[in-house]
Amino acid sequence: MAAIFRPIPWAFRGSLCLPLSARRFSKTADENRSLAGKVAVITGSTRGIGFAIARRLAQDGAHVVISSRKQENVDEAVTILKEEGLSVTGTMCHVGKAEDRQHLVTTALKHSGGIDFLVCVAGVNPLVGSTLGASEQIWDKILDVNVKSPALLLSKVLPYMENRRGGSVVLVSSGVAYVPVPKLGVYNTSKTALLGLCKSLAVELAPKGIRVNCLVPGIIKTDFTLREKTMPNMLPDMNKIFGVKRLGEPEECAGLVSFLCSSDASYITGENIMVAGFSSKL
Ligand SMILES: NC(=O)c1ccc[n+]([C@@H]2O[C@H](COP(=O)([O-])OP(=O)(O)OC[C@H]3O[C@@H](n4cnc5c(N)ncnc54)[C@H](O)[C@@H]3O)[C@@H](O)[C@H]2O)c1
Question: Where is it predominantly found (predicted)?
Answer without folding.
Answer: other
